[in-house]
Design a protein that fits this description.
322 residues; alpha+beta; OB fold (Dihydrolipoamide Acetyltransferase, E2P); Hypothetical protein af1432; 5-stranded mixed β-barrel; two-stranded antiparallel ribbon; 7 strands
Length: 322
């Protein structure tokens, strides 16, 4: 069993192509067709993403969520979106499989390298107070930061997604700061790094980046308020000036922009507005990329809830000078 090697990744699957390999079960249940026949409906994943899979033989029981299975299937394009038409399903004992990273959607860069880049940026913050506070908040996240996703289902819902989201925003901020020299770079960089750290206690995630649910704290308080509390407690412990603490708290408190999206206050600093905009930009670019990765060239994706139910068009692959 441990010798199974996928002949294709899910992202590379094309209509009619044969798929023979191992995948992780994200959901599985019996459903009933319009003709009244039962069929097995699953969502399965590998490192490149998640794909729907159907088996029209209802004699195969739905495998448990989180189990590893060996499947034989063929690609089936339906409404411009690839699916798997299952021919065989075989459960694999977890101990027989080694490389879990090949089974779960993961950030495209090495987690340790991303954390090192973020830590280096925190240490380089010109304002020593913000540098000290940001480094301490990062340190308190511990090893969870290496694998934690940025969301349960929305943008960067992948292993190490929180690092991926943060490092992408950090690079965008550094690239744009020279265009807007009036911004306080120390406050902005600190805000980028700490704005979502409260998610580590908001969601219940395993080492594979799979979120089973929101924690009780996540449901009752949420990552924004938790982030504000953490800044208050850590800042006071470190002896940071109260107004500096307050400004960084506002960055976190307002980064979703409006109350409808979870921010108790709208951005009232130029740096907070900038943080909100690059947060939104990175989230939307990630959701669009995820959508088109499962859409055939020349077709529209399914509607994306996080993008106001828009469909995203995947352009054909033109040759030069076409």
């Amino acid at each position: 069993m441990s010798d199974y090697t996928n002949n294709l990744s899910l992202a590379d699957l094309t209509n009619g192509a044969h798929f023979d390999g191992i995948v992780l079960v994200r959901s599985a249940e019996f459903r009933t067709s319009q003709a009244g026949k039962k069929y097995l409906d699953m969502n399965v994943s590998d490192r490149t993403g998640t794909m729907n899979a159907k088996m029209w033989d209802a004699s195969v029981a739905p495998p448990p969520v989180g189990s590893v299975i060996h499947i034989r299937a063929s690609g089936n394009e339906y409404n411009g979106r690839m699916q798997l038409r299952l021919e065989k399903v075989e459960t694999i004992h977890p101990k027989e499989f080694i490389d879990w990273n090949s089974l779960v959607p993961s950030a495209p860069e090495d987690p340790a390298a991303m954390r090192a880049e973020i830590t280096a940026a925190a240490e380089a913050i010109p304002d020593s107070d913000y540098s000290l506070l940001t480094c301490e908040l990062l340190e308190r996240c511990g090893e969870k930061l290496l694998t934690f996703p940025a969301a349960k289902q929305m943008h960067h819902a992948e292993r190490s997604g929180l690092l991926h989201h943060t490092v992408s925003m950090l690079r965008a901020a550094k690239a744009l700061l020279p265009v807007y020299p009036q911004l306080n770079a120390s406050l902005l960089i600190a805000g980028v790094i700490v704005h979502d750290l409260g998610k580590i206690t908001e969601m219940d995630s395993d080492d594979m980046g799979f979120v089973s649910d929101y924690t009780l704290e996540g449901k009752l308080i949420g990552h924004i308020i938790r982030g504000v509390i953490n800044i208050e407690e850590t800042g006071k412990t470190l002896g940071i000036h109260p107004q500096k603490i307050l400004l960084l708290q506002h960055m976190v408190l307002s980064h979703h922009g409006i109350p409808e999206y979870g921010s108790p206050k709208p951005p009232m600093l130029a740096e907070a507005e900038f943080l909100h905009l690059i947060d939104t930009l990175d989230a939307r670019m990630n959701e669009m990329q995820e959508a088109i990765s499962h859409t055939s060239p020349g077709n529209f994706s399914e509607k994306i809830w996080g993008l106001d139910n828009r469909q995203i068009y995947r352009m054909p692959c033109f040759q030069p000078n076409d």
